[in-house]
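Project standup — Tuesday

K.O.: blocked on the structure for the chain from last sprint. Re-posting the sequence here as requested.
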Amino acid sequence: MKNIKYLTGAGLLMLLSSILLLTYAHISTDVGRVMFSALVLFAGISAYLFAQANRKNNKAFIYHFIQAAGLVGYGIVSFVFYKEPSSLLIGTMIILGTIGLIEFMFAIGVVQDKEVDNKRILYTRLLSGAINTIASFVLLWLFLENVELGIILSGACLALGGVSFMILAQKIKA
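H.V.: unblocked you, prediction finished:
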């Protein structure tokens, strides 16, 4: 795969957005919303550039393109609609659930692909799908019980996603 710097960049931007989200309570809501949205949007653009650079691998291209579209959409929707932490929490719950389902679908595609030798990708995607899906249900519960804790979990999930992008980039590089 080519241009892993874009995947690494997307991961770093997601990590920065998670740090911002974890400090959200200490930042002006409008400033935090704009900064968070911009970081997620640029992470999506970087993920899109990675997908475009790797169009020859069709399954990986589709997967990374959907990831990029999700991040860009999340960044835009965060900016336009999330005026308070509870609405950000609902959006994060939706995006995590969607990412979880995409991870499962990608894993099914890997299982069906006879040419794929590296089944570690399968296990990584299944684990990521399970974590994201479970996290989305936990966020739903936290939306009803404790929004502040939900924002912290949202930040942790974004950090985990960013770190996983950076780890994947290093595995591709090796």
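K.O.: great, moving the ticket to review. Residues 124 and 144 are 31 Å apart (CA to CA). The helical segments are 4-22, 29-53, 58-81, 85-112, 120-145, 147-173.
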